[in-house]
Write a structure and sequence with these properties.
alpha/beta, globular, 15% strand, 43% helix, TIM Barrel, 239 residues
Length: 239
Amino acid sequence: MTGARFPNPIFAALDTPDLGKALEIGRAIKPYVGGLKVGLEFITAQGPQGIRAIIGLGVPVFADTKFHDIPNTVGGASRAISALDIAMFNIHVSGGAAMIRAAVEAARAAPARPKVLGVTVLTSMNDDDLVQVRQQGPLPAQVKHLAGLAQANGLDGVVCSPREIALVRAACGPDFLIVTPGVRPAGAAIGDQRRVMTPAEAVAAGADILVIGRPITAAANPAEAAKAIAAEIAAPAGA
């Protein structure tokens, strides 16, 4: 199982604009997670200082930036985010090869090089959505194509739904990072996600990192929720 590269593959998504709330949850759950993710809502509200505050909790931080712009702009944004000592950030693979390379080159120039990931197809999308934006389907084939484009242009891995983990792993090999949102414990509401798996299923399929938000952060006791998910992943198959 490739997820074994990470002792704890859970990155909890602190998707809130409230720095105090993010820090409170982060402190409570950090014994039970492998890292924390900050998304556009938090980054827009709190900026670099907010990201530094989350990094100050002492766990790896994934900046879910999803950059998608002309290569020069993405290169500049990548230089700025890479200077914050984050563990990883991401871009949209659909921005094309030149844009991907600009992000990779900017990250490589940072004193502490972060991993750069490529978003393939958002986990909120399905085949009908691809038709609306005139991307070529079916969806699994589009994810595979974009993962290949990401790997060919130097990205460390991709972000994809749990349903495409095995496909990407087979196409891109064991060393290519697979980060997956759309992970929901059994019985949890799926919200706006469409292509989901349980945490144990996603790790068994070959995911390296699981991004889990509301099942942890919206729980009555986020620390207990994170602890339970970590225990589920660690349990032997069939236990």
